[in-house]
Fold this protein.
Amino acid sequence: MRFSRLFARTLRDAPADAEAPSHQLLVRAAYIRQLISGIYTFLPLGLKTLRKTEAIVREEMNAAGAQELLMPIVLPSEPWKITGRWQAYAAEQLMFTLKDRAGRELGLGPTHEEIVTPLVAAEFESYRDLPVNLYQIQWKYRDEARPRSGLLRSREFLMKDAYSFDRDVEGLKESYASMVEAYKRVFDRCGLTYRVVEADPGLIGGDVNHEFMAPAEVGEDLFVRCTNCDYAANLEAASAAEPGAREGGQEDLAVVETPGRATVKGVTEFLGVDPKALLKSLAFEVDGKPVLALVPGDRELNETKLRRALAPGEVRMLDDDDFQKHGMIKGFVGPQDLEGVQIVADHRVRSRAAWVTGANKLDHHTTGVVDGRDFAVDRYEDLATVAEGDPCPRCGRSLEIGRSIEVGHTFQLGTRYSEALKATFVDEDGSEQPFVMGCYGIGVSRVVAAAAEQHSDDKGLAWPKALAPYQVVVIVVNGDDERVVAEAERVYTELGARGVEVVLDDREAAAGVKFNDADLMGFPVQVAVGKRGIKSGTADLKRRSTGDRSDAPLPGVTAAVLELLESLA
RNA sequence: CGGGACGUGGCGCAGUUUGGUAGCGCGCAGCGUUCGGGACGCUGAGGUCGCGGGUUCAAAUCCCGCCGUCCCGACCA
């Protein structure tokens, strides 16, 4: 490709509406352009990188035995109404909906369980046909409440979604394991640094699922990882090791005045006690009945964990009116002396002898409150959000928290969709059984953004070889020198003949502009052919990712480039 | 959905407070000089100032409504 013909105009300044590094760079380097919020055009360079990512995903899916198909983007509402997700998505306003000329309700596909499940049920009727794993690579539509950071969270995005259908849970586990391995190969090949983390199983409970998290500053997801072993989990799902023996001695109960001090900060500062010694009592209603959740004052309650612990009950935080109804005083609630209130406490509540907590009396707190003596906990659960430095649940060493981008998600669905959609097969004993399903997603366009986040610096993008739109750029440093042009053309042609994807920067521009654009666009290898080098019989090779430079004798430039490429990841 | 900010040539911005001929830098076109890390000079093209209404002799600027975009949060996966 000749740069002078390439549909790519780089920008010196990042557009004002881009903030994330990958977003700024992909726009500046002419990979993408925004059309409307969360919807982007892929320019020739961006499309090449997207297609390469897609090809890697496709190869690994095929290698894992999955079969590619292509389902429609425009979907009927009926199957979604059966599973209840039409209503759910409508409530979240996540589905782009439309109507055809007959007034039929349609939606743009946000995911395809409702489509693939009836399809398989209609085609395959026997256990003999199973297992089967189907996937597609296709544009998905989700009318996100807040699209952000360019390709990291867009409303139209390229996704690989796979669906496995097994006869039983054993089969599902095999299908699942094979997908997880395929995912690892995909992300390895894309040059991503990532962790496989345990994710929140959700309210269904028991479902195994993993997220593939690529660490990045701009990541939206917080995840916990052990500094020693390989434990890693989404913060929502993470646990820490349970605390040890009780600290501190018993004390006598005493009610003290704490005028207007309704917060942890207010109370502990007023009384001069450590937030660790305060017992936070958070009031909820579960199916109409009051529940108190207890966590130490220096801890945040993880509502997801609470919901899971109390499932299938509907958990709702109390509003001001509810406090009155249940005879509680907001800001001064304590677990002692409360009648008819279920008390759920974090494990850490066991680790301290005496607590300061609300006195259930306006502007008063009680000190010396002892678990077991002054109040009775109904259930101990893991309720607190993991904090930096907590002990690992596996090895006990320190945990740390990082930000990351979710590039993939694998899920053991079970029979949730097949039962709802009455998708069954006939088993060996003649009985009708619902398919045991798994679903597996990779955000292909998001992988591009994640790779840009992980492989870039202040000068621009620095693609891993596998994702670069072109492997090599040959820079004509002095366009007015015939020998320079001839040598550059020769190298360009030779590389092309050897199957290397190469750009010849033949523009009439100052050398500095070309060097800077080459850095910005992130081609892994740069070859500079100029007067200076010609004089000494060499061309300059530069490795973009490290900045390492070397001279290659002119006759052997092509071989030197091939060798350098070979050595790159 | 709650909070905040912004909308002026392709990109980045000034001008709005105090209404009075629409500006700057980059980029783009032509000519010349330059030429190994974003060169210089001269000349030039390019703008319904987001849209609609209102106030006024006069609106980028003041008022009302709408639309769009981004950021924080909620939500989502």
